[in-house]
Amino acid sequence: MAVGVRDPYEVLGVARGAGRDEIQRAYRRLARRYHPDVSAEPGAEERFKEITAAYRVLADPKRRREYDAGRRSHQRYHGGIDIDLSGGLFRGARGADARAELTIGVETAYTGGRRRVTLPGPAGRPRQYDVDVPPGVVEGERLRLPGQGAPGTRGGPSGDLFLVVRLAPHPRFKVSGRDVMVEVPLSPWEAALGAVVPVGLPTGPLRLDVPAGSSSGRRLRLRGQGLPNPHGPAGDLFAEIRIVVPERLTPGERALYRSLARESPFDARLT
């Protein structure tokens, strides 16, 4: 082995008999720590390249066998460089993929839109990306930015950046997959007699037909009015009834309620 070149087992901190899963766990742990996009440690970029190169040797059964067998006259190991065994020519290594989170509102999940993302960059310099968010993205979906991951070595291509979508809490909407739930406030007489009321969505208002005799907690389903789906049917909208009583009654309203209380045999405790 050339002077100054470290043993890949030593680089990853694993024993020579380590299995593939152990090697992969060690690589992921070290890559998260030294990735140049997130690490502020001195020399993180070189350390990351060394870790990646070591992993490429040990994760490939053929390369690992050749390394263990001492065929270093045909293959030199050096951080960040792959060697083509068929001809001994250097070739670039692809950079590692990177991952970050992108938080959007329910409105953007409905309609899509452009968002600016700021992420840590090398030497503490932030990097900004303008991301086109398509309509219908859901919690956990990944948006791929090709070539925006870690840079490659020796002219190799850069990795990709994957943005994992997170939906921010909303004061009115609750989202489950592509289904959306929204509360609809009703007056007591609207709930008792039935009504057609507006429901505001990011895509525009809808008219909800509330059946007579609707109590608080009742859910009305509007098919296809949830989050859109570019690859299939859209989610559903569930409108949950919430009856709201006036805080202050006019004398006329009070008289009507008292008359209703005398006339109606309805007892809410017996339903």
From TrEMBL:
Pfam families: DnaJ, DnaJ_C. Keywords: Chaperone. This is DnaJ C-terminal domain-containing protein. PANTHER family: DNAJ HOMOLOG 1, MITOCHONDRIAL-RELATED. It comes from Dactylosporangium salmoneum. The keyword Lipid biosynthesis does not apply. The keyword Transit peptide does not apply. Gene3D superfamilies: DnaJ domain, Urease metallochaperone UreE, N-terminal domain. Residues 7-71 form the J domain.
